[in-house]
Amino acid sequence: MSEKEFFYQRVLGAPGQERFFATEFTRGPWSNDHQHGGPPTALLARAVEREGARAGEMFVTRMTFELLRPIPISAPLEVVTEVLAEGRSVHRIAAALVSGDQQLAVGVAVRIRVQELAVPTFAHGDAALRPPDQCRAFEFPFFHHAVGYHTAMEVRLADGEFGTGNMAAWIRPRCDLIEGEETTPLQRIMICADAGHGVGTALDTSAWSFVNPDLSVHLHRLPTGGAGEWLGMHARTWSTPLGFGMCQTQLSDRHGPLGVGIQSQVISKLRDH
């Protein structure tokens, strides 16, 4: 890691205006110039948290992101939010990532009121992942740059085998989302969640690309533990001969499941194959 151990630097402009400048740690696998989906979706989650802070105790149960176009590393970014609906029990908040007059990504969050109720809870027999300290270190093999998202993340292989479309790993960021700002549990989940279809890769990454145009994360609780806590990801991928696919990722912490991530995939043959 370099001295800049964060994904974005935050710069204040006019009153109420924030601009975000990406570091190389946001770089994705498919282009030297564009970002991985994790850090930008975490920026949108941060905006939702701040917009919703005044509404009292509510829990983000879902965030759905549309990744509209590649997000450049070099361009300054801004986030715009809008409250779509504020009911007694459910709020919906939209956030958009923009650069200049271009909209790069949008997210919609569903927030549900928190209320103590004597509701029965159920265990579904989900197999627990081996603890991170019992798992070997793993590096994503399809990044071709010295510095990028892959160097900003620590990954340990928990189960399965890379390339089979069914693998489990523990993952956590080595750096904060914003320089000088503590990363929240929700933001950490979003930094990691977009890596699901990388964990669950089902294709030869030297011959195929699999870009996800969206990400939807459903949560029933947040991870416990501090900022350095691991997120468990058990990812399964399905590919079709029609040029698209899907990845479903079970999200968990050391205490068990906490949600699920879903991604569509645009599958393409690499040019030199």
Give a topology summary:
Elements: E1 6-12, E2 18-22, H1 38-52, E3 58-67, E4 78-86, E5 90-99, E6 102-113, E7 136-138, H2 149-152, E8 153-160, E9 166-173, E10 176-178, H3 185-193, H4 196-199, E11 208-211, E12 214-219, E13 231-239, E14 244-253, E15 256-269
Parallel strand pairs: 1-10
Antiparallel strand pairs: 1-2, 3-6, 3-12, 4-5, 5-6, 7-8, 8-9, 9-13, 11-15, 12-15, 13-14, 14-15
Helix pairs in contact: 1-3
Provide a quick synopsis of the model.
By secondary structure, the chain is mainly β. The chain has helices at 38-52, 149-152, 185-193, 196-199; strands at residues 6-12, 18-22, 58-67, 78-86, 90-99, 102-113, 136-138, 153-160, 166-173, 176-178, 208-211, 214-219, 231-239, 244-253, 256-269. The chain has a single domain, classed as Porin (Beta Barrel).
Describe the structure in your own words:
With about 270 residues, the protein is mostly beta strands. It has a single domain (about 5-115, about 130-270), classed as Acyl-CoA thioesterase, double hotdog domain (Porin, Beta Barrel). It is built from four helices and 15 strands. Strand 14 and strand 15 (about 255-270) form a beta hairpin. Helix 1 packs antiparallel against helix 3 (about 185-195). The mean pLDDT is about 90.
